[in-house]
Structures
1.
Amino acid sequence: MKNTMYFIFVGILLVTACSLPIVKTSWSKPGAQPGEFERTQADCWEEAGQVMLAGLSEQARFDTCMEQEGWFLIQENQQ
């Protein structure tokens, strides 16, 4: 009985996990010119690796740099 309940629980968990939407995030900036994203991205990764801000991870420093340059994250649900 205990094993049956365990397998039912695992099955429900798997079905639920598989039905969750996939969220894709990407950077956007209105009016951005071709190649601008790549240049800004490279500059921000370089800056994020050099600058030490109290308590911020390298990813957080990168995100802050991108936002300061006018970029913002958008999220899209994918099926």
2.
Amino acid sequence: MNLAELVALLNDRSIALSARNGELLVHGKKQALNQNGLLELLRQHKAALIDLIDSGTYVGPRSAAVDVPPNLIRSEERR
């Protein structure tokens, strides 16, 4: 499985990623990580996933995304 396929699989399972101090942080249901060797795939692609996140090109699952308008102020912050 290549990196793009892995990211698509993670997004399908609503698993989001982040990186901090060179560590890969995985956010999602533990059950989803234990299916189909997903945890091992994360280990295999850890360095590439961290690079993807650090480059700013990683897009996680839609539920984890926040829409930010051009003025960078979300509507609930305008009050």
